Amino acid sequence: MKRYVGLLRGVNVGGNSKLAMADLRKLVEGLGHDGVSTLLQSGNVVFGSERADEAALARELERAIADGLGMSVACLVRDGAELARIVAHNPRGEHADNGSRHFVVFLSAAVDPAKLAEIEPLAKPGELIAAGEREVHLWLPAGSHSSRLSQHLIQKRLGVEVATLRNWNTVTKLATLLA
Fold this sequence. Notes:
Layout: E1 2-8, H1 21-30, E2 34-39, E3 44-49, H2 54-69, E4 75-79, H3 80-88, E5 102-107, H4 113-119, E6 128-131, E7 135-139, H5 151-158, E8 163-167, H6 168-178
Antiparallel strand pairs: 1-3, 1-4, 2-3, 5-7, 5-8, 6-7
Helix pairs in contact: 1-2, 3-6, 4-5
């Protein structure tokens, strides 16, 4: 059985899209997944599944949340190996020394380096942006609220369907849960 994390976009952020994690756990268990747990209140659900199609698992989560909880929430699913790869190959490790200021924007498609290069000039002095495979790393020393770089900007400029952001502390905790 493979371990996955479902990354829900925009849940319990700024008082919007309120979703109790207990309801999310029950919903994911009801889909037949094992070992279901959540991390924080921001839409991170860890589970085991025999299925291997991450995109199909994400669509299943989206449908179940819509049907069972009446919410429209975009989801991405990643397996433990991908989270381990992201943590091991942190392109900004030498600069990103505060996990609450280092962010990973998870994407529904591969990063287009040419399009990412068009976003780089928007970074303020001291901010860094780096491509992964299906993720973008951001180092925002003044925090995400004061930056022009956002998951929405990245999603729009890269032309991907879904983008959702997690700080490095959360990414490493999720990687540990999936290990």
